[in-house]
Amino acid sequence: MAGATTAGRAHAPSASSKYFRKLSATPGQIALALGIAVFLAFFLIVPVGTVIYVAFTEKGTGEFTLVNFLDFAQTDLFIRSFWNSFYVSAMSVVVASVLALPLAYITTRFEFRGAMLIQTLGFLPLIMPPFVGAVAMLLLFGRNGTVNLLLNDWFGIKIPFMEGLNGVIFVQAVHYFPFILINLSAALRNIDRAMEEAAQNLGSSGFRLFRRIVFPLAMPGYIAGASLVFVKVFDDLATPLLLNVKDMLAPQAYLRVTSIGIADPMGYVISVVLICMSILAMWISARAMRGKDYATVQRGGGGLAKRQMRPWESVLAYGAVLLILLLVLAPHIGLLLLSFATIWSFSPLPDSFTVAHYGRVFGESFVYVKNTLIYASIAGLIDVVLGTAIAYLVLRTKLIGREWLDWAATAALAIPGVVLGIGYLRTFYGVQLPDGTPLATLWIMIVLALAIRRLPYALRACYAALQQISVSLEEAAENLGATKVRTVRRVVLPLMAGGILAGFVTSFATAAVELSATLMLVQSNADAPLAYGLYVFMQSAAGRGPGAALGVIAVLLVALCTFASHLIIEKSQKAKAAGR
Amino acid sequence: MLRHSVAAAALISTALFMGPAFAQSGKVTVVTSFSKDVTDPFKQAFEKAHPGVTLDVQNRNTNAGVKFVEETKANNQVDVFWASAPDAFEVLKGKGLLQKHKPKAEGIPEKIGSYPINDPENYYSGFAASGYGIMWNDRYAKANNLPEPKDWQDLAKPVYHDHVAMAAPSRSGTTHLTIETILQGEGWEQGWRTLKEVSGNFRQITERSFGVPEAVNSGQVGFGIVIDFFAFSSQASGFPVKFVYPTVTTIVPANVAVIANAPNKAGAEAFVDYLVSPAGQEVLLEPSIRRLPVNPAVYAKAPADYPNPFKDTSLGAKVKFDVNVSEKRTNAVDVLYDQTITFQLDALKAATKAIHDAETALAKKDNAEGKALVKEARDLVAAMPISEQQASSPEIAGAFTGGKEKGARQAELEQQWAAFAKERYQQAQAKAEQALKLAR
């Protein structure tokens, strides 16, 4: 929004404002939209375009053709992959909702000790360091993981948690349910208490109150989270590959793009299909919300009324919360064990424990931690600034083509990291600094790649937050003589704060463990983030323990930052409530 | 947002004018797929031997490394490429991205086993050797009462069904060489038959080489077809794993090359020379590395049980490996394996299981008709969509390289081959099930 402020102030002469109102946008808004478009063009569309245009060229001649898409439709493997991806994504949304709904509802709606801690813990699954997370998960839930070894000893059975498509659904739901949790919680906190009270006065209570009033009002948050889960699962390649499920679309694209020596357009064709599907999913979710008004005028002091639970309710609630947390945090418990384990092989628990792995990574992890913090926070900031600006342009102006900003940003979800990495090298390596260093070797390029990759997360959060704010508040401010810029700064932004923070945290945390684009762009160890350090360790048998130790450090780091931001939300809401 | 891009532009322009003076003297940039456990000891030893020189190690997987060198060739900043897979070096050489350099080292023979150690044109040099073999988790084997395998054919036995893993040949240059070794050693038809019989017992076909030792180490899979040092370094880290070289194995060199237009050519050549010098070769013996030196004299300093391919003639000597044959059909073999095995693994496994069951039943109650059906089923599984001559024909090779000439597209071939295999696996399963009924 910083851009809106400057640009808006510079070009808001009141004489011509009537003329511009006819265009439904102020010059400031137009400039802002153009600025964002240029940014996306430079750092997303052009680099990616230089890579995937191959999808539209004919073999041999290089001329434009659509025959590759015909091949896609005629290949059984791709069609099978397409439906598998679709099924897995849809089911992951269902399972993730089952995990997220109780946590979000219980912690925002009741006086519940440790609500903040639960919000933080419930967020951790999103931060799954590459490779080690997978190993930890297999050591617990795999065919010969802790759970199955014990079950086999006791009852002579094994449960295929991690087999085939259902395994992918299980892992994806655990991994991505925080998207729903965090967005839904933010939305629940934003509901006006008066709505609930009105319903209660009219005799509604209990589940009916939740179903008819509370949940519908929180719908923007839920849809934001659910659509992210769907698209992310559809586009994710790491989890299926870890479980050796290859007949899904994203893994197929990855395998083809990264095989050496083979020049095959199909990997890029699949990328194009992924991008189209992501945009389609976002368009449908926007469609579903159209014509409904979720905004409430009055901002409740701290959202819904929090109430005491009766004793049996308490037991039930704590039981449910603990069970869910235990399930979703299992990978992190496994990671922690692994980081202290000497040897952990075909046994329920490690043979013995040691702190040597931490000793090994302690010296060198400092530079990784520093880089990760710098990269992820700058990327997170870029993302919330862009996210807020795009959400504002889409929801509050009538600029022609404004949705395209949203869709372009969302398309970033579908682009495999390695494609973005190659695109950056191709676009920016030729650009040289005066001393001959290529532009692409600067660490700021890693930051920009991370920001682009994580922009959709922040964007969805900001979008949902703005959807919940009634336009009439802004109109009131403007009627009282405030300029658009002042209205945005004094009214819109403070009301969106919770959503913006949620967006920042999601972008920050996931950027902190991102690897695929980073691996292409890291130019020296001194510029490397944690995920890269982890990768370097995880390529050898002796590196498993140190890798896990680095993974734990990464998770703790992100968890601390998340906890701090939750503290801030809580504080600010308490302050608001007190001021009422 | 505008302010942000202004800030970014400002940042970039400041960097433009204040960019750090790029000290080239003394820095050697190495792109490698080797893990820290391998690169750290070499970095230390090399920097000690050449004071004032720093080795800047950039870890990337082989594919990313090749792509990186290729994409950045216009303004190359990399001096050395250092990795296992010979095919990655072939790709780089083919694209003119390597610089000729003949290391000044003495006592290194022409060949190890039957594989030439150095590129005949001196674009890249072997510095360590590795052989393929079978690695297994001892606890897993004991818990499941599985015998210790000795040879590839053992892994085709029914007891190992669903217990074996391997990396896909299209994803791992060294697995590709193993496949090619079996194909050349046993011939095209028989070779694929063996491969499919073994693959029918697979639990997983992983997409990265290290995925296999990782799965065996953690006990998720019992047996893995891996390159020897994965097993040796796992043993050195304390994992309960064992390893055996089968009778048919190739010993292949891991390589190093100087990149064309290297910013520090002298430093790059010094590093390559160091790797093949006696001092550099000795670093290979460290427990966390455990690769086979290419200098036979260095084995004198190795521990007693260290495999020595120069003495132990069973290692790699049995196979005559023809690089030219391999080169012509590299992509065809990889894609054939992926389309008929990797992506059809469920169907192949179902057919294999049915055949095993039928054979077990027939062993108890003989039935001539049943036996004939099982033989038919085995032949159906082994059938390949194209012949050896077709595989190395320019028409098929051209489909994978995106060459200028018009021809069949890769996707078309893939669909044909996959459909061919799938149909036959289903028929094979039906025949084996029929045979099982006859034996009841």
TrEMBL record, chain A:
It comes from the Bacteria. GO terms for cellular component: plasma membrane. InterPro entries: MetI-like (IPR000515), MetI-like_sf (IPR035906). It is found in: Cell inner membrane; Cell membrane. Its main location: membrane. CDD domains: TM_PBP2. It is a multi-pass membrane protein. Belongs to the binding-protein-dependent transport system permease family. This is Iron(III) transport system permease protein.
TrEMBL record, chain B:
Keywords: Signal. This is ABC-type Fe3+ transport system, substrate-binding protein. Gene3D superfamilies: Periplasmic binding protein-like II. It holds the Pfam family SBP_bac_6. GO terms for cellular component: outer membrane-bounded periplasmic space. The lineage of its organism: Bacteria, Pseudomonadati, Pseudomonadota, Alphaproteobacteria, Hyphomicrobiales. Residues 1-23 form the signal peptide.
